[in-house]
Amino acid sequence: MSIGTAQVRAALEELAGTVPHLLEGLVEEEWGRRYGRPVRLGKNPTRPKTRINTTGHDACRLLEHLMAGRGAGRVFGPQVEALRQIVVQNYYRDAVGRLRLRTDEDGGLPPSSVAIVSPYDLTARYARRGQTTRWKGFVAHLTETCARDGVNVITDVATTPATTNDSQALPGIHTRLARRGLLPAEHLVDGGYTSLVHVEHSHREHQVTLTGPLPGNPTRQHRRNEGFGRDDLRIDFDRRQVTCPQGQVSKGWHGPYPTSSPTAAPLIVARFTKGQCQPCPARTRCTTSRESARNVGFPRENSTTCKSASAPNSKHPTGRPATRFAPEWRAPSTSSPTAMACAAAATGGSRRPTCSTYSRPSP
Question: CA angle, 95 as apex, 90 and 100 as ends, to 5°?
């Protein structure tokens, strides 16, 4: 509710300072009471629906007034454009022309990755981590050296929208560190940064060992710790076949296929037949499908045997930095020669120190 009210106020202030004559015949005394001061709403504002509807009608009146008459064809400032976007995002007109508030069930809302949540910064986004951490804004990715003795120096700082997955920031971090000559030999990261694709790319392109907990297995068998999971099947890459715990050998070997996630490794798919699976006495432990047979997907052999893929030996809690040595002091730095010299000094002059990266909400 506050975003619409604050944006109407911001648009009115912008217009009053640039084209005040366009507000003639529109602004009323009631508008002064509603938008004449910054919006301050408590946790339980009175008559919230009435305020939302009133703000929506005022915003539409303002935009329609500007687009007609003397304002037709004029290019307005950023606050008016922001108001237009917020109105389209939060309101719509029904079949009879009545203004309605959008909800998930009525009119539809945009996803968090594009939804405007602040009238003061249209690039800020709403995000949630777990059940307790919620914020509007961005995510800061901090990379620092890990020295047992001495100062831990920040070597890279990146900011991304709050809805951006941590793993999407990792390639840019490595590129910037390489450009500055500060690439580590080992890079300790939170679980949000790791994937088989990133582990392999870091080792191949930058000779960096990426260490951190890999994503867990989302299959039903693994979640419930029952039945036959992928690890219970024997994969023979040379013969291109998979053998199940009951001794059945797969009849098909396909792929590797790209996955829907840009950070997930392409998967090979091995298929069993109905004739193998339907009469099997252990069928319910293997698949819940009554009609089709078991399929199993897995990365290529070099992905599963990559040295760095054994990274999930980190025992730090989920969401905590994967640093080996707790930093007692963090010195901010830039890409200046002085900062680079400071980073080298903090790691004993080593050109390939160990470093860590972690993310923090940045409202």
Answer: 25
Reduced to 3 states, what is the DSSP secondary structure of residue 24? coil
First to last CA, the chain: 19
**Residue 256, preceding peptide bond in cis (omega within 30° of 0):** yes
Mean pLDDT, all residues of the chain: 79
Environment class of residue 177 by beta-carbon count within 10 Å: exposed (0-12), middle (13-18) or buried (19+)?
buried
Q: What confidence category does residue 43 fall into, taking pLDDT thresholds of 50, 70 and 90? A: low
Place of tokens 């930058």: 206
Instruction: Write out the H or E segment, with its range, that includes residue 177.
Output: helix 170-180
Q: In the predicted model, is pLDDT for residue 69 greater than 90?
A: no
Residue 322 in contact with residue 356, Cβ under 8 Å? yes
The conformation of residue 191, written as its DSSP 8-state character, comes to G
- In 3D, which of 315, 27, 274, 329 has the Cα closest to residue 149? 329
CB atoms near residue 234 (< 10 Å): 12
Phi then psi dihedrals of residue 117, to 5 deg: -120, -5
Q: Which pTM value belongs to this model?
A: 0.67
The per-residue DSSP string of 198-234 comes to HHHHHHHHH--EEESPPPPP-SHHHHHT-S--GGGSE
Contact 168, 263 (CB under 8 A): yes
Single-letter residue type at 121: D
258 burial level (CB within 10 Å; 0-12, 13-18, 19+)? exposed
pLDDT band per the 50, 70, 90 thresholds, residue 329: very low
Burial tier of 115 (Cβ tally within 10 Å: 0-12, 13-18, 19+) = middle
Helix/strand number for the chain, H first, E second: 11, 14
Angle formed by the axes of helices 196-206 and 170-180, nearest 10°: 10
Tokens for 37?
């001061």
Q: How distant, in Å, are the alpha carbons of 115, 150, 189, 346, 363 from that of 121?
A: 12, 39, 29, 37, 11
At residue 42, what is the residue type?
A: G
Q: Which two tokens stand for residue 357?
A: 């990266």
Separation in Å, CA 144 to CA 156, 199, 203: 7, 19, 19
